[in-house]
Design brief:
The complex is a heterodimer of chains A (about 400) and B (about 160).
Chain A lengths: L2 H10 L3 H4 E2 L4 E5 L2 E8 L7 E7 L6 H12 L8 E6 L6 E6 L5 H13 L8 H21 L4 H7 L2 H8 L30 H4 L7 H17 L19 H11 L16 H7 L10 H7 L7 H9 L10 H5 L34 H12 L27
Antiparallel strand pairs in A: 1-3, 2-3, 3-4, 4-6, 5-6
Helix pairs in contact in A: 5-7, 5-9, 9-13
Chain B lengths: L1 H15 L5 E2 L2 E2 L6 H17 L4 H17 L7 H16 L3 H7 L8 H14 L9 H15 L1 H9 L1
Antiparallel strand pairs in B: 1-2
Classes of the chains: A alpha+beta (about 400), B mainly alpha (about 160).
C-alpha cells in the first residue's frame, strides 16, 4: 500500500474517540472490560449510548463469538448491538449499545438497602409485574433460540441476570466448556442464592428450568425487597455443588419436598448426602405460603400462584417461560406496561461516574453499605449499563 | 423441535447466504478463475485437517470466504490470505480450543500474524460480523436427526454392521 493511500484511509476510518464523547464517563468496570456513558460528538442525535471496551487486544475467540452472537439477537428485551469499532492504534474492540440509566440489579440493591436501613420502600406492584413480564419475554426468546447456538445455552443459564442487568456476554466465556460442571464456574459470578435446588444437589446439565427458578427468586425479591433464599456464604469458593446452608435456607422457606412432589430427587448425585444431613421434620412448619403471608402476599392471589409455579422444586414440574407469559397474573389489572416506570416516580439515583484509575477496593466500599445486612455477599461481576430495554424510556432527572 | 430448528436454520440461510457469481470466466469483480478457486478450497481442506479442525469449522470457513468474495472485489493475490483468515474466523466461532488456531498463523502458511490480523478486520467489517452462517453441515445434522427420530431402526442396523 502506498503512503498517500494509507493516510487517506486513516482519515476516512471512523474512530470511536472522534465520534463519541465519553472521557471521564466510565460507569462500569469488570473482567469484561470497561463501560462508558457516551454521546455523539456531531450532535446528530442527543441519545445516550453505552460504549463497552472489551478487555484485551485484538479479536479474541470470546470477543469474536460475543459479537457474532449479538448480531443474531433481535428482541426488544435483549440488548441490541449498534456498532463495532476496531481501534487501529491500540487494537482495542469497542461495542456501541443504547444506554440504560437503571438496571434490575440497581433496583434490587436500592430496595434491599432501604429495607436494611429501616426505611422500607415497596416496589409498586405494577412495576413488578411489568419487570417480570419483560424478563420472561426476553428469556423466552433466548430459550426459543438457544438450539441454534451453543454459546446461547451457556449464556441463557443464569442469563436473566446478564440479560436484564448486564447483557454481559463477555462472561459467557466463563461457561466455555459445556461439559464442565456448573460448580467449576467462577463462583462469584454465579451466586448461590438464585441456584435451583437440583444444581445444589449436583445436577450437571444446563436446563431452561434453572433460569425459571432464578426468575422466581428475583420475583419474590421484587415483592418483598429481600432475597428470598438469602444465606451467609463464607465458603463461596467451594467447588462442591452441594451447599448445606443454601439448601437449609431453601427448605426453611419452602418446606422439605414430599416424595410425590419430586420423585426424581432420588436420582440426584448428592441425594445420599441430603439424606444424611437433613431431616424432613425440621422443616415441617415451613411453606412458601407462610413465608409470603409474612410479607403480606395472600396465598389465593394470582401473584402468589405464579410465584409458586416458578419456584417449584421439581424441575420437570416447573412452569416454562412460555406458559408463564400466559399466566392469569398478566391478564389481571394493572396490565403490564412496556415502560416499567409508567405512572410512577423513579426514586433510583443515576449512575455515578467512576474515576479512571480508581482502585477496585474503593468501589467495593461504596457498595459496602448495602452489604452490611447481608453477610459477606459478593455480587456477580455485573456490567452496569444494560437492562430490559424499555427501562430507560424516561429521561427526566428525578 | 427439530422442525423448528430446520425452519430457523433456513431463515438464517435466507438472511446471510451469499455466493460469488461467475462472469467472463472469473468470479465477478475479480481476476480469480474457477480452477484457482477450487485449488484454494482444496488447500483450505488440507489446512483444516492439519490443524484438526472439525468439518463444521471447514464448512463455515468456506462459507465465510464465499460471502466475502460475493461482497467484495478481491484480487487473486489476496485469495490465499482471505481463505486462511476465513478459516481462522470459523475456528474462533466453532472450536473450543483457543490454542490451536493461534498456531495456524505461525505454521506452514506464508502469511505473517500482522497480515492475518489485518485481513481479519477487513473480513469482519465487510461481513458486518455476521459469522453464524448456515452451512450444509448444519442441514446434514438436522436431516440426520430427523431421520433417526423417525426411523430408529436405521441406527440399530448401522451399529450391527
Amino acid at each position: 500500500m502506498d503512503h498517500d493511500f494509507k493516510t487517506r484511509l486513516a482519515a476516512e476510518r471512523e474512530r470511536v474517540e472522534d465520534l463519541f464523547e465519553y472521557e471521564g464517563c466510565k460507569v462500569g468496570r469488570g473482567t469484561y472490560g470497561h463501560v462508558y456513558k457516551a454521546k455523539r460528538k456531531d450532535g446528530k442525535d442527543e441519545k445516550e449510548y453505552a460504549l463497552k471496551q472489551i478487555e484485551g487486544t485484538g479479536i479474541s475467540m470470546s470477543a469474536c463469538r460475543e459479537i457474532a452472537l449479538l448480531r443474531e439477537l433481535k428482541h426488544p428485551n435483549v440488548i441490541t448491538l449498534q456498532k463495532v469499532f476496531l481501534s487501529h492504534s491500540d487494537r482495542k474492540v469497542w461495542l456501541l449499545f443504547d444506554y440504560a440509566e437503571h438496571d434490575l440489579w440497581h433496583i434490587i440493591k436500592f430496595h434491599r438497602a432501604s429495607k436494611a436501613n429501616k426505611k422500607p420502600m415497596q416496589l409498586p406492584r405494577g412495576m413488578v409485574k411489568s419487570l417480570l413480564y419483560q424478563i420472561l419475554d426476553g428469556i423466552h426468546y433466548l430459550h426459543a433460540n438457544w438450539v441454534l447456538h451453543r454459546d446461547l445455552v451457556k449464556w441463557a443459564v443464569y442469563g436473566f441476570l446478564c440479560l436484564c442487568v448486564s447483557a454481559d456476554m463477555g462472561f459467557a466465556r466463563l461457561f466455555n466448556s459445556p461439559l464442565k460442571p456448573l460448580a467449576d464456574l467462577d463462583p462469584v459470578v454465579v451466586t448461590f442464592w438464585y441456584r435451583a435446588p437440583e444444581l445444589l444437589l449436583g445436577a450437571r446439565h444446563y436446563t431452561k428450568a434453572i433460569d425459571i427458578w432464578a426468575i422466581g427468586c428475583i420475583f419474590a425479591e421484587l415483592l418483598t425487597s429481600e432475597p428470598i433464599f438469602h444465606c451467609r456464604q463464607e465458603d463461596i469458593k467451594t467447588s462442591n455443588p452441594f451447599h448445606h446452608d443454601q439448601l437449609d435456607r431453601i427448605f426453611s422457606v419452602m418446606g422439605f419436598p414430599a416424595d410425590k412432589d419430586w420423585e426424581d430427587i432420588r436420582k440426584m448425585p448428592e441425594y445420599p448426602t441430603l439424606q444424611k444431613d437433613f431431616r424432613r421434620t425440621t422443616y415441617a412448619n415451613s411453606s412458601l405460603i407462610k413465608y409470603m403471608e409474612k410479607h403480606k402476599v395472600k396465598p389465593d392471589s394470582k401473584v402468589f400462584l405464579l410465584l409458586q409455579k416458578l419456584l417449584t422444586m421439581d424441575p420437570t414440574k416447573r412452569i416454562t417461560s412460555e406458559q408463564a407469559l400466559q399466566d392469569p397474573y398478566f391478564l389481571e389489572d394493572p396490565l403490564p406496561t412496556s415502560d416499567v416506570f409508567a405512572g410512577c416516580q423513579i426514586p433510583y439515583p443515576k449512575r455515578e461516574f467512576l474515576s479512571e484509575d480508581e482502585p477496585e477496593e474503593k468501589t467495593e466500599k461504596v457498595t459496602m453499605s448495602y452489604r452490611h445486612g447481608l453477610g459477606s455477599y459478593k455480587g456477580p461481576d455485573l456490567q452496569k449499563f444494560a437492562c430490559t430495554k424499555n427501562m430507560h424510556t424516561q429521561k427526566s432527572c428525578i | 423441535r427439530l422442525g423448528t430448528l430446520l425452519l430457523n436454520t433456513l431463515a438464517r440461510e435466507m438472511r446471510l447466504w451469499r455466493a460469488p457469481v461467475l462472469k467472463n470466466g472469473c468470479i465477478q469483480g475479480s481476476d480469480i478463475s474457477p480452477p484457482q478457486y477450487q485449488e484454494v478450497i482444496v488447500w483450505l481442506r488440507e489446512m483444516s485437517s492439519l490443524f484438526q479442525f472439525s468439518s463444521e469449522t471447514f464448512a463455515l470457513g468456506v462459507y465465510v470466504l464465499n460471502s466475502l468474495l460475493a461482497a467484495v472485489k478481491t484480487q487473486q493475490k489476496y485469495l490465499k490470505c482471505v481463505a486462511i483468515t476465513s478459516l481462522i474466523l470459523a475456528a474462533k466461532i466453532n472450536e473450543e480450543d483457543e490454542a490451536r488456531y493461534t498456531n495456524v498463523s505461525q505454521s506452514r502458511c506464508k502469511f505473517s500474524t500482522a497480515e492475518i490480523l489485518r485481513m481479519e478486520r477487513v473480513i469482519l467489517n465487510k461481513l458486518h460480523w455476521d459469522l453464524f452462517i448456515a452451512t450444509p453441515m448444519d442441514f446434514i445434522h438436522i436431516f440426520h436427526g430427523l431421520l433417526m427420530s423417525r426411523r430408529p431402526q436405521l441406527m440399530l442396523s448401522i451399529s450391527q454392521k
